[in-house]
User: Fold Aromatic hydrocarbon degradation protein from Chryseobacterium pennae.
Amino acid sequence: MKKILVSTALLAGVLSYAGGFRVSLQGVKQLAMAHTSAHAEDASVTFFNPAGMSFIPSKLSVVAGGFGASNKVTFQNLNTLQSTETDNPLGTPIYAAITYKPIENLSVGFSFSTPFGSTIKWPDNWEGKEMVQKLELKSYYFQPMVSVKLAPWLAFGASYIYARGKVDWDKAVTQFNGQVNINDDKASGHGYGFGFYFRPDPKLDVSIAYRSAIDMKADNGTATFKFPTQTPYSLLKLNAAGQDGFTATLPLVEEYTIGLTYKVTPKWQVSADFNYHGWERYSKLVLDFANAPLAPNNPSDPTVLVSAKNFKNSKTFRLGTQYAFTNMIYGRLGAYYDESPYTNENFIPETPSFDTYVITGGVGFKLKQFGIDIAGGYAMPQYRNVNNANLGFYGQAKAKAFYFGLGLSYNPF
Assistant:
């Protein structure tokens, strides 16, 4: 029974993954410039700061794009020297947005994005199989928004966020030679964002934005156990199908962003961003099972599993540049550094996270009202000496990743 309890307690890892993994792939042009935010050329600015809509030169702007994200994680047990590598499928974040100015100083818009999500797949029989075999996470943000130009050089914008999410997680229950699947595809939550966008000089854009934390409510989750026999069903108080329900709150973190873009010359601009992520709200995670007594250390209610977390707030530093070779062709480069939200002592294989350096680049083409953007990024995660005593998980973790994207824009009038 102890192994079942330990394994199931690690469900907290998947809940943190819903907020602990931030996908910085929401604008192809922005990615090419290190994913900087102070760019108001088209509707792609809406994800970063709704106030930027007021400075889009076109009355109507439409954008859409998608990415391919490839990553692999390798874990080596330093005692046995055995190495295990993930076999992750290609991630495909997407985004789309539209903005419109019904009157001169008022802009409205709508943004769809996928800011959290990924799939990690370890071998079924690897040494951490009780923690994770496969984990798929998806999230979708739907954001209507409005922006008001308060002065020729200043705008304020705000957005409402409706979020939907899905989690699908497999891991082993070795005590009974079985497996459990944790699934919920109807988690939802609400949030908001707001920001100020400044253009005090034609050469300078400044973006200050805030996106709130969102508590994703999973009210109808299902834990499905598979064993060679039904003997454990009564022990775990499962139904005839080997299932139990659960509820949980999956927190997605808040984010503060300050960005600026300066036009050094009419053809050359430089951009910089600072992001601050509020990971400290992960002090604990609570999972409430309908019947299964999976928390014997909680005498008041053994069906309520509480897992302490030790996440810390983190920062990201970004620097990008763009050069106009002609009125139709633009070259872009960038680099950024992204901190991990937890230490080596809190490393978990469900949500492997690393301090990471990333270099980016891309090209853009303008064809009258149409724009085509291509971007790529290469990540250099720093290896970690894993020392998680709570999980009994020790070794060395390494990763590698790269991204590419294609974006389209249309500014008809």
User: Anything to note?
Assistant: The chain has one domain: 26-408. Residues 195 and 307 are 34 Å apart (CA to CA).
